[in-house]
What does this fold into?
Amino acid sequence: MVARNICAQVGIDPSKLLLGTDLAQMSDEQLDRVVGQTAIFARVSPAQKNRIALSSR
It folds into this structure.
């Protein structure tokens, strides 16, 4: 995956990446738990960006 490869190249821990497909499977409570630990959100839709912005930090 491109996003993971770029993360590794620029020194960002690729395990702190969350894809839109993963986010789609999460409840709001699950998202609240991981949003503060996530460095990169990749391939997310506008609606998913809204969920991220509204989640607890």
